[in-house]
Amino acid sequence: MKLGVITDGISREFEHALDVMKEFDLEYAELQFLWDKEIGDLDDRELARAQGLAAQREVKVCCITRHIFAGLLAGETRLGDATHSAQMEALQRCIDTAKAFDCDLVRIMSFRKEMILFGSGGAEQWNVSTGAWDKLLQLLAPAVQLAEDEGVTLVVETGNNAMITSAYLARKLIDALGSKYLKVLWDPGNSLYCNEPAYPDGYEALGLLTGSPGGYLGHLHVKDCRVDIPKASVEQCQFGHAQMAPYFEDIASGLKRDGYQGVVSLESVYRPGGGTFEDGFRLSVGEFKRIFGD
To answer: pTM of the prediction?
Structure first.
Protein backbone atom coordinates (compact mmCIF):
# COMPACT_ATOMS: atom_id res chain seq x y z
CA MET A 1 0.00 0.00 0.00
CA LYS A 2 0.92 3.66 -0.28
CA LEU A 3 2.38 4.76 3.05
CA GLY A 4 2.91 8.26 4.35
CA VAL A 5 3.10 10.44 7.43
CA ILE A 6 1.76 13.79 8.59
CA THR A 7 5.08 15.60 8.51
CA ASP A 8 4.66 17.82 11.57
CA GLY A 9 4.24 14.63 13.62
CA ILE A 10 7.98 14.31 13.07
CA SER A 11 8.91 17.99 13.07
CA ARG A 12 7.54 21.33 11.93
CA GLU A 13 10.95 21.95 10.38
CA PHE A 14 9.90 20.68 6.97
CA GLU A 15 13.36 19.83 5.65
CA HIS A 16 14.12 17.67 8.68
CA ALA A 17 10.72 15.94 8.55
CA LEU A 18 11.27 15.06 4.89
CA ASP A 19 14.74 13.68 5.60
CA VAL A 20 13.41 11.47 8.40
CA MET A 21 10.61 10.26 6.13
CA LYS A 22 13.13 9.25 3.50
CA GLU A 23 15.22 7.49 6.13
CA PHE A 24 12.26 5.11 6.55
CA ASP A 25 11.33 4.96 2.84
CA LEU A 26 7.97 6.68 3.25
CA GLU A 27 6.88 8.08 -0.08
CA TYR A 28 3.90 10.30 0.80
CA ALA A 29 3.83 13.48 2.88
CA GLU A 30 0.65 14.86 4.37
CA LEU A 31 1.01 18.59 5.05
CA GLN A 32 -0.54 20.22 8.12
CA PHE A 33 2.00 22.57 9.78
CA LEU A 34 5.21 23.67 8.05
CA TRP A 35 7.67 25.81 9.98
CA ASP A 36 5.58 28.33 11.94
CA LYS A 37 2.45 28.22 9.76
CA GLU A 38 -0.54 26.03 9.08
CA ILE A 39 -0.67 24.73 5.52
CA GLY A 40 -2.65 27.12 3.35
CA ASP A 41 -1.07 30.12 5.06
CA LEU A 42 2.29 29.84 3.29
CA ASP A 43 3.15 32.83 1.14
CA ASP A 44 4.32 32.34 -2.45
CA ARG A 45 7.99 32.22 -1.48
CA GLU A 46 7.39 29.68 1.28
CA LEU A 47 5.19 27.55 -0.96
CA ALA A 48 7.86 27.50 -3.67
CA ARG A 49 10.46 26.53 -1.08
CA ALA A 50 8.28 23.66 0.18
CA GLN A 51 7.65 22.46 -3.38
CA GLY A 52 11.37 22.45 -4.07
CA LEU A 53 12.24 20.55 -0.89
CA ALA A 54 9.67 17.85 -1.63
CA ALA A 55 10.75 17.56 -5.26
CA GLN A 56 14.43 17.25 -4.32
CA ARG A 57 13.61 14.26 -2.13
CA GLU A 58 11.09 12.76 -4.56
CA VAL A 59 8.35 12.95 -1.94
CA LYS A 60 4.73 13.11 -3.11
CA VAL A 61 2.09 15.14 -1.27
CA CYS A 62 -1.05 13.12 -0.58
CA CYS A 63 -3.30 15.53 1.35
CA ILE A 64 -3.50 19.20 2.33
CA THR A 65 -4.67 18.99 5.91
CA ARG A 66 -5.80 22.27 7.38
CA HIS A 67 -8.37 22.57 10.19
CA ILE A 68 -11.06 24.16 8.03
CA PHE A 69 -14.42 24.51 9.87
CA ALA A 70 -12.86 23.02 13.03
CA GLY A 71 -14.19 24.12 16.41
CA LEU A 72 -16.92 26.40 15.06
CA LEU A 73 -20.47 26.19 16.37
CA ALA A 74 -22.79 25.45 13.49
CA GLY A 75 -25.68 27.11 15.34
CA GLU A 76 -23.76 30.38 15.54
CA THR A 77 -22.53 30.36 11.93
CA ARG A 78 -24.50 31.63 8.94
CA LEU A 79 -23.89 31.26 5.23
CA GLY A 80 -22.06 34.32 4.02
CA ASP A 81 -21.22 35.69 7.45
CA ALA A 82 -17.67 36.71 8.28
CA THR A 83 -16.82 33.38 9.92
CA HIS A 84 -18.10 31.18 7.11
CA SER A 85 -16.61 33.42 4.43
CA ALA A 86 -13.19 33.28 6.10
CA GLN A 87 -13.32 29.49 6.14
CA MET A 88 -14.30 29.37 2.48
CA GLU A 89 -11.38 31.66 1.63
CA ALA A 90 -9.07 29.37 3.60
CA LEU A 91 -10.46 26.39 1.70
CA GLN A 92 -9.75 28.11 -1.61
CA ARG A 93 -6.15 28.74 -0.53
CA CYS A 94 -5.80 25.08 0.40
CA ILE A 95 -7.21 23.99 -2.95
CA ASP A 96 -4.69 26.24 -4.70
CA THR A 97 -1.93 24.78 -2.51
CA ALA A 98 -3.04 21.24 -3.34
CA LYS A 99 -2.84 21.99 -7.05
CA ALA A 100 0.65 23.43 -6.60
CA PHE A 101 1.71 20.06 -5.16
CA ASP A 102 -0.23 18.04 -7.78
CA CYS A 103 -2.40 16.71 -4.95
CA ASP A 104 -6.14 16.11 -5.25
CA LEU A 105 -7.19 15.79 -1.57
CA VAL A 106 -8.01 18.59 0.87
CA ARG A 107 -9.10 17.87 4.45
CA ILE A 108 -12.03 19.62 6.08
CA MET A 109 -13.53 19.27 9.55
CA SER A 110 -17.20 19.38 10.54
CA PHE A 111 -17.73 22.14 13.09
CA ARG A 112 -17.93 21.52 16.83
CA LYS A 113 -19.53 18.40 18.23
CA GLU A 114 -23.21 18.32 19.11
CA MET A 115 -23.66 15.24 21.25
CA ILE A 116 -27.06 13.97 20.03
CA LEU A 117 -28.08 14.60 16.44
CA PHE A 118 -30.89 12.07 16.04
CA GLY A 119 -33.46 10.43 18.29
CA SER A 120 -37.00 9.13 18.71
CA GLY A 121 -39.50 8.08 21.32
CA GLY A 122 -39.44 11.52 22.93
CA ALA A 123 -35.72 12.09 22.53
CA GLU A 124 -36.43 14.23 19.49
CA GLN A 125 -37.98 16.77 21.86
CA TRP A 126 -35.80 16.43 24.95
CA ASN A 127 -32.36 15.30 23.82
CA VAL A 128 -31.67 16.01 20.15
CA SER A 129 -29.82 19.17 19.11
CA THR A 130 -32.70 20.21 16.89
CA GLY A 131 -31.67 21.41 13.46
CA ALA A 132 -27.95 20.82 13.97
CA TRP A 133 -27.63 18.15 11.26
CA ASP A 134 -29.53 20.17 8.67
CA LYS A 135 -27.43 23.22 9.51
CA LEU A 136 -24.25 21.20 9.04
CA LEU A 137 -25.41 20.15 5.57
CA GLN A 138 -26.23 23.75 4.71
CA LEU A 139 -22.85 25.05 5.81
CA LEU A 140 -20.79 22.34 4.10
CA ALA A 141 -22.69 22.35 0.78
CA PRO A 142 -20.82 25.41 -0.61
CA ALA A 143 -17.49 23.80 0.25
CA VAL A 144 -18.44 20.68 -1.68
CA GLN A 145 -19.60 22.80 -4.60
CA LEU A 146 -16.27 24.64 -4.61
CA ALA A 147 -14.45 21.31 -4.70
CA GLU A 148 -16.58 20.20 -7.65
CA ASP A 149 -15.86 23.46 -9.49
CA GLU A 150 -12.11 23.10 -8.81
CA GLY A 151 -11.91 19.37 -9.55
CA VAL A 152 -10.49 18.33 -6.18
CA THR A 153 -11.83 15.96 -3.55
CA LEU A 154 -12.64 17.01 -0.01
CA VAL A 155 -12.09 14.47 2.75
CA VAL A 156 -14.03 15.05 5.96
CA GLU A 157 -12.23 13.69 8.99
CA THR A 158 -13.83 11.62 11.70
CA GLY A 159 -12.79 13.90 14.53
CA ASN A 160 -13.34 13.45 18.24
CA ASN A 161 -14.44 17.06 18.78
CA ALA A 162 -16.41 17.30 15.53
CA MET A 163 -19.97 16.69 14.37
CA ILE A 164 -18.68 13.80 12.24
CA THR A 165 -17.15 11.46 14.79
CA SER A 166 -17.74 8.05 13.21
CA ALA A 167 -17.50 6.28 9.88
CA TYR A 168 -21.26 5.79 10.11
CA LEU A 169 -21.91 9.54 10.35
CA ALA A 170 -19.37 10.32 7.63
CA ARG A 171 -21.17 8.00 5.23
CA LYS A 172 -24.52 9.56 6.20
CA LEU A 173 -23.11 13.02 5.48
CA ILE A 174 -21.78 12.01 2.07
CA ASP A 175 -25.06 10.38 1.12
CA ALA A 176 -26.96 13.50 2.20
CA LEU A 177 -24.73 15.87 0.21
CA GLY A 178 -24.66 13.52 -2.78
CA SER A 179 -21.28 14.38 -4.30
CA LYS A 180 -18.46 12.18 -5.55
CA TYR A 181 -16.13 15.05 -4.59
CA LEU A 182 -16.65 14.37 -0.87
CA LYS A 183 -15.10 11.32 0.80
CA VAL A 184 -14.11 10.23 4.29
CA LEU A 185 -10.80 10.85 5.98
CA TRP A 186 -11.18 7.93 8.35
CA ASP A 187 -9.37 8.23 11.66
CA PRO A 188 -10.51 5.11 13.52
CA GLY A 189 -8.46 6.11 16.56
CA ASN A 190 -10.57 9.24 16.91
CA SER A 191 -13.72 7.18 16.49
CA LEU A 192 -12.85 5.14 19.57
CA TYR A 193 -14.03 8.19 21.48
CA CYS A 194 -17.56 7.78 20.13
CA ASN A 195 -17.43 4.04 20.85
CA GLU A 196 -17.35 2.89 17.20
CA PRO A 197 -15.22 -0.26 16.87
CA ALA A 198 -12.87 0.19 13.92
CA TYR A 199 -13.41 -3.31 12.57
CA PRO A 200 -15.80 -4.52 11.41
CA ASP A 201 -18.19 -1.68 12.30
CA GLY A 202 -16.30 1.36 11.02
CA TYR A 203 -14.76 -0.52 8.12
CA GLU A 204 -18.09 -1.84 6.87
CA ALA A 205 -19.78 1.55 7.30
CA LEU A 206 -17.35 2.91 4.70
CA GLY A 207 -18.63 0.50 2.09
CA LEU A 208 -15.33 -1.32 1.80
CA LEU A 209 -16.96 -4.72 1.37
CA THR A 210 -19.29 -3.71 -1.46
CA GLY A 211 -16.98 -4.46 -4.38
CA SER A 212 -16.30 -0.77 -5.02
CA PRO A 213 -12.56 -0.09 -4.45
CA GLY A 214 -12.25 2.41 -1.64
CA GLY A 215 -15.98 2.75 -1.06
CA TYR A 216 -16.53 6.02 0.77
CA LEU A 217 -12.91 6.13 1.93
CA GLY A 218 -10.67 8.83 0.50
CA HIS A 219 -7.81 8.87 2.99
CA LEU A 220 -6.78 7.16 6.22
CA HIS A 221 -5.03 8.24 9.44
CA VAL A 222 -3.74 5.59 11.83
CA LYS A 223 -2.43 6.02 15.35
CA ASP A 224 -2.78 4.20 18.66
CA CYS A 225 -4.29 5.55 21.85
CA ARG A 226 -6.23 4.81 25.00
CA VAL A 227 -9.53 6.57 25.57
CA ASP A 228 -11.48 6.93 28.79
CA ILE A 229 -14.78 8.56 27.94
CA PRO A 230 -16.14 8.87 31.52
CA LYS A 231 -12.90 10.63 32.50
CA ALA A 232 -12.86 12.75 29.30
CA SER A 233 -9.30 11.57 28.65
CA VAL A 234 -7.15 10.43 25.73
CA GLU A 235 -3.61 9.09 25.95
CA GLN A 236 -1.59 8.80 22.74
CA CYS A 237 0.52 5.64 22.67
CA GLN A 238 3.22 3.82 20.75
CA PHE A 239 1.77 2.27 17.61
CA GLY A 240 0.46 -1.23 18.25
CA HIS A 241 0.48 -0.96 22.06
CA ALA A 242 -3.00 0.32 22.96
CA GLN A 243 -6.69 0.13 22.08
CA MET A 244 -6.29 0.26 18.30
CA ALA A 245 -3.82 -2.62 18.26
CA PRO A 246 -6.47 -5.38 17.91
CA TYR A 247 -7.87 -3.71 14.79
CA PHE A 248 -4.80 -2.82 12.71
CA GLU A 249 -4.18 -6.23 11.13
CA ASP A 250 -7.83 -6.62 10.10
CA ILE A 251 -7.97 -3.12 8.65
CA ALA A 252 -4.75 -3.61 6.70
CA SER A 253 -5.81 -7.02 5.37
CA GLY A 254 -9.20 -5.65 4.41
CA LEU A 255 -7.76 -2.66 2.56
CA LYS A 256 -5.45 -4.91 0.55
CA ARG A 257 -8.24 -7.39 -0.17
CA ASP A 258 -10.74 -4.71 -1.18
CA GLY A 259 -8.40 -2.74 -3.46
CA TYR A 260 -7.98 0.51 -1.56
CA GLN A 261 -5.95 2.82 -3.80
CA GLY A 262 -5.34 5.72 -1.41
CA VAL A 263 -2.65 6.52 1.13
CA VAL A 264 -2.39 5.35 4.73
CA SER A 265 -0.85 8.15 6.83
CA LEU A 266 0.80 7.55 10.17
CA GLU A 267 -0.44 10.31 12.46
CA SER A 268 2.55 10.56 14.74
CA VAL A 269 1.05 12.23 17.80
CA TYR A 270 2.72 10.00 20.40
CA ARG A 271 5.41 11.66 22.51
CA PRO A 272 7.15 9.40 25.05
CA GLY A 273 7.84 10.81 28.49
CA GLY A 274 10.82 13.13 28.34
CA GLY A 275 11.04 12.70 24.56
CA THR A 276 9.90 14.36 21.36
CA PHE A 277 7.30 13.60 18.72
CA GLU A 278 10.13 12.45 16.49
CA ASP A 279 11.07 9.94 19.20
CA GLY A 280 7.48 8.71 19.15
CA PHE A 281 7.59 8.42 15.38
CA ARG A 282 10.78 6.37 15.49
CA LEU A 283 9.25 4.02 18.06
CA SER A 284 6.09 3.55 15.97
CA VAL A 285 7.09 3.58 12.30
CA GLY A 286 8.47 0.04 12.18
CA GLU A 287 5.24 -1.57 13.35
CA PHE A 288 3.24 0.75 11.08
CA LYS A 289 5.24 -0.39 8.06
CA ARG A 290 5.09 -4.05 9.08
CA ILE A 291 1.29 -4.02 9.27
CA PHE A 292 0.35 -1.68 6.41
CA GLY A 293 3.28 -2.18 4.05
CA ASP A 294 3.38 -4.70 1.22
So the answer is: 0.96
